[in-house]
């Protein structure tokens, strides 16, 4: 789905598909450099990170293992609840492994700060975070994020894996959702 297909639902297009792919390529290059000579496991947070994971994994010019976790921090609205539950855990034992958690957006930081301390307790060799988007103004918990695509204003965005009530995930671009859609 393109922005044109949901034009009246968006205030603006923040990042086009081409811009997103280019930035993900840069992040992959950076990660590849940092983990040269080491085995790497990237962990995608379902469901939002599916697109980032798929494009990032393919941007690598090396082998990378992929695993997935599902956590719930939200109801179905547009605000974080702060309550984190593991809905699907890793299939991989990460002890001694180098792990990069891949997410599509850090909003309050509650999910990822909880998740990194959870993963750190499993004795990995290292855990770092990569997120495509971050909302610095919304941050409530300090999260040490090593790889960030872009910092964005504190507005609700959709597309490229980001949803509002399970819609817009399949939008190619990332756009700001028009308030009339959720109010
Ligand atoms: P946090 O715990 O507040 O950092 O929120 C993390 C999760 O909330 C993200 O992984 C998204 O699934 C969801 N989220 C936060 N902001 C947005 C947004 O602007 N659009 C869509 N989903 C969002
Ligand atoms: Mg998410």
Features:
single chain; 183 residues; alpha/beta; Rossmann fold; six-stranded mixed β-sheet; three-stranded antiparallel β-sheet; 4 helices; globular; binds inosinic acid; binds magnesium ion
Describe the protein in words:
There is one protein chain. This protein is an alpha/beta fold and 183 residues long. It has one domain (17-155): Rossmann fold, CATH 3.40.50. Helices cover 23% and strands 33% of the residues. It contains 4 helices and 9 strands; from the N terminus they run E-H-E-H-E-E-E-H-E-E-E-E-H. The protein has helices at residues 17-34, 50-59, 110-120, 179-182; strands spanning 10-15, 41-46, 65-74, 80-88, 98-106, 126-134, 147-151, 157-158, 174-177. It has a 6-stranded mixed sheet with strand order 4-3-2-5-6-7, sandwiched between helices. A 3-stranded antiparallel sheet has the order 1-9-8. Strand 2 (41-46), helix 2 (50-59) and strand 3 (65-74) form a beta-alpha-beta unit. Helix 1 packs across helix 2 (50-59). The longest helix has 18 residues, at 17-34. The chain is globular. It starts with 9 loop residues before the first strand and ends with a helix. Bound molecules: inosinic acid (IMP) and magnesium ion (MG). Residues 48, 73-74, 80, 103-111, 156-158, 162-163 line the site of inosinic acid.
């Amino acid at each position: 789905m393109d922005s044109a297909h949901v034009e009246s639902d968006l205030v603006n297009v923040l990042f086009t598909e081409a811009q997103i792919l280019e930035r993900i390529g840069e992040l992959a290059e950076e990660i590849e450099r940092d983990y040269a000579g080491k085995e790497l496991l990237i962990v995608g947070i379902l469901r939002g990170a599916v697109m980032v994971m798929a494009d990032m994994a393919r941007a690598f010019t090396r082998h990378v293992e992929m695993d997935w976790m599902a956590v719930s921090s939200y109801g179905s609205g547009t605000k974080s609840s702060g309550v984190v539950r593991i809905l699907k855990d890793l299939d991989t034992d990460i002890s001694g492994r180098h792990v990069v958690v891949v997410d599509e957006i850090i909003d309050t930081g509650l999910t990822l700060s909880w998740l990194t301390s959870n993963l750190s307790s499993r004795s990995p060799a290292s855990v770092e975070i990569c997120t495509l988007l971050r909302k610095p103004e919304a941050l409530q918990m300090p999260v040490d994020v090593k790889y960030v695509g872009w910092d964005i204003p504190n507005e609700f965005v959709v597309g490229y894996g980001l949803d509002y009530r399970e819609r817009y995930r399949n939008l190619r671009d990332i756009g700001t959702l028009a308030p009339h859609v959720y109010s």
